[in-house]
Amino acid sequence: MSLLVAMLHLLLSVYIFTFLIGVPTNILAFCTFCHKVRQKATPIDVLLLNLTISDLVFLAFLPFKMKEASDSFAWVLPFALCPFTGFLFYVTIYNSTLLLTAVSVERYLGVAYPLRYSLWRRPRYAAVASVMFWVVTCLNLSIVYIMPYSQWRKGSDGGHSNSSAPAPPPTTCYLNFTEDELDILLPFRLELFLVLFCIPFFISCFCYVNLILILSRLPNISRRRRLRCIGLALSTLIVFAVCFGPYNASHVVGFVRKESQEWRNVALLFSTLNACLDPFIFYFSSVAVRSMLKNFFGNVAPKLRILGRGRGSHSLQHKPSKAEKYKEAAPP
To answer: Can you give the pTM of this predicted structure?
Structure first.
C-alpha cells in the first residue's frame, strides 16, 4: 500500500510540474509560430506549430489524469470522459514522435541536399504530412477509445450481465483488463512499439547522425553554429529516447510476459515530461522563438527595474520615530 501511495504522489507531482511549466511555454511557442506562419511560413515552422498544438491538447487533458491519480486510479468523473481522455492522451504522445521525426528529416534534407531540397521545400507539404500524422495516430489508437466502452458493455467484472438493468461503468479507466482483452491489447501495443516508436526513432537517428557528420566536415560554418546544431541534434535524440523509450519498452515486456506491466504508469511519466521539454527544443530550433523571447524579456526587464527602483526609493524615505511623533504632537 505504501508503494502505491508513493507512486500516486510521484504521478501527481510530475503531472502538476509538467502542467505548470508546459502550459505557459507552449502557449508562448504557439503564439510565436502562428505569427511566423502568417508572415512567412517554412516547413519546420508548420511542423513545430503542429507539435505545439499536440502538446497543448495533451496538457488540456492532463488535469483529468491528475484527478485520476488523486483518487487512487478510481475514475469518478463522467465515464464519457474516460475513453476521450485516454484516446487524446496517447494520440498526442505518439503524434509527437512522428512530428519530431519529420523535423529531423527536414533538417537533414536541408543540409545534405540544400539545392535539390529547396525546389521541393513547401510549407503545404509539411501541412499535409502533419494531417497524415494525426490520421495515422488516431487510427492506430482508436482501440484506446473503444476498449472502455467494450468493458462497460461486458460489465464491471469482465463478464456479461445477466440482469435486465444496464451494467454500471467500470470503476477504473483503461487500467484493468481480462485475459481476452489482453489477447487483443498486447499485440496492439507491440505494433505501437514497432510502427510508432522504432521506425521513427531509427529514422531520427539516421538523420541526426548523418547531420552531425556533414556539419563536422563543413568548412564554411562557424564553430559556434556547428556546436549549437550538433548539440541540438544530440539533445533531441536524447529527449526522444528518454521520453518515449521507457513507456514503449513496457509494451515489449508486457507482450513477452503476457501481462500488463504495473510500472507502465511510472514509465509514462517520461512521456508526460516531453510536453514541457519540447519548448526548449523550439527555442534552439527556431529563430522566431528566440527573437520572441528576447523581445519579451527586453520589454519586461526595464519595467521590473523601474518597479524595483520605485519600491527602493519608497523604502528609503524617512519615517519619523515614535519620539519625533511625540514631539510634534506635544503642545508648545
So the answer is: 0.83
Grid cell at residue 188: 496492439
Domain count for the chain: 1
The residue range of the domain holding 132 is 2-285
Cβ neighbours of residue 111 under 8 Å, at least 6 residues apart? 211, 214, 215
Q: Is 329 buried (19+), middle (13-18) or exposed (0-12) by CB count in 10 A?
A: exposed
Domain CATH number, residue 279: 1.20.1070.10
Helices (H), 196-222: 199-217
* Average pLDDT over all residues of the chain: 84
Write 18-24 long-range contacts (CB < 8 A, 24+): 18/59, 18/62, 18/272, 18/273, 18/275, 18/276, 19/59, 19/62, 19/63, 19/66, 21/276, 22/55, 22/59, 22/275, 22/276, 22/279, 23/56, 23/59
